[in-house]
Write a structure and sequence with these properties.
mainly alpha; 2 domains; two-stranded antiparallel sheet; 57% helix; globular
Amino acid sequence: MEYRGIPIEQLAEKSNFYETAYLVIFGELPNHESLETFKREIYNHSFLDTHVLRVLDALRFDAHPMSQMVTCFSALGGVYSDANPSLVKNPYKDFNVRVKQMYRILGQSAVIAANIYRKLYGLPLISNYEYNPDHS
């Protein structure tokens, strides 16, 4: 199996999550500067709307984690009017709009997953995570 012409085994051995995500989205592996910008953009779009936190909080603590994740992603669909085809004509025709949505998904999925874990152990929910540019 390959991603954009690069064997998956090679990516698993030599690339991290961010490099692989960049490759899938933009079609090439990033240089150092592009990778740092990519990480910052993901972080900048990682803030989780309080409405999504309330939806997660309303679920039982022992609900299956994937069910919680799917529910939160469904809730995200109601948060961003700029990505709603019923409100904006052809929002995904513009590549920049699509990329913005990808940043949101990548950034917020980590926060959602962390909150699912926190909920399981009775910890308070969080709306964001701390950016660490050295963490891959």
